[in-house]
Amino acid sequence: MILAVDIGNTQTVLGLIGPSGIESHWRVSTDPTLTADEIRVHIGGLFVLDGQQWDGIERVVISSVVPALTIAYEDLAHRATGKPPLVIGPGVKTGMPIAYENPHEIGADRIVNAVAAVDGFGAPVIVVDLGTATTFDVVDGSGAYLGGAIAPGIETSAEALFRRAARLSAVDLEPPSRAIGRNTRESVQAGLLMGHASMIDGLVRRVWDEMGGECAVVATGGLAGMIAPLCETVGEVDADLTLRGLALVWQRNS
Predict the structure, then answer these.
(1) What one-character DSSP code corresponds to residue 190?
(2) For position 60, which CATH number holds?
(3) Domain carrying residue 64
(4) Distance between CA 252 and CA 238 in Å, rounded?
């Protein structure tokens, strides 16, 4: 069995991948101060909940945007499996041509998402990943990664708003029932959530214009299930897109 790990700035997604696909998966908070030993204990606790054990892990595959944790998870992989992990980066076979000006600047998770999106939904395709940042990744009809856009994530925007606006108190990020808020809470929710959905729709339509036609749009990330229903252009939600992409990249390199 393979342990797939996607280390994001805010959350880390882990999944156990067997012959039949993803067998277990978890989403935990990212803590860059953790050591390899602490991570092993935490993950071991998750394994116990699903009746899994470290003994069943053959290899580890990692995508990461947090360098300190990349090192910790590499150490963990060596200790737990006796073998080096596959860390997504330059030199790793993805099966996807890269048309970006500097491929070294692309986050590993963005490439992995694009690989999974093409496999699941065909090309061309746009991936919208809602996390610390909201990223847009575009693959053309030939299956080549073109690039995309990066915007502040909804939680990142909310934190900045509540920190800088003295008279606004933090509110729960719950989808509003209308765009015209009748109180401060509803107004903030409408602005944050509907505003973010409108930003997504606006950028997707601009990408469609540049590509010369519409294509599939798939949303992923921790907030995809909340924001996607508010969007007009997002047709699919796949919470496991990154894990599936890691599994595909692993297969292409094993």
Answers:
(1) I
(2) 3.30.420.40
(3) 2-87
(4) 21
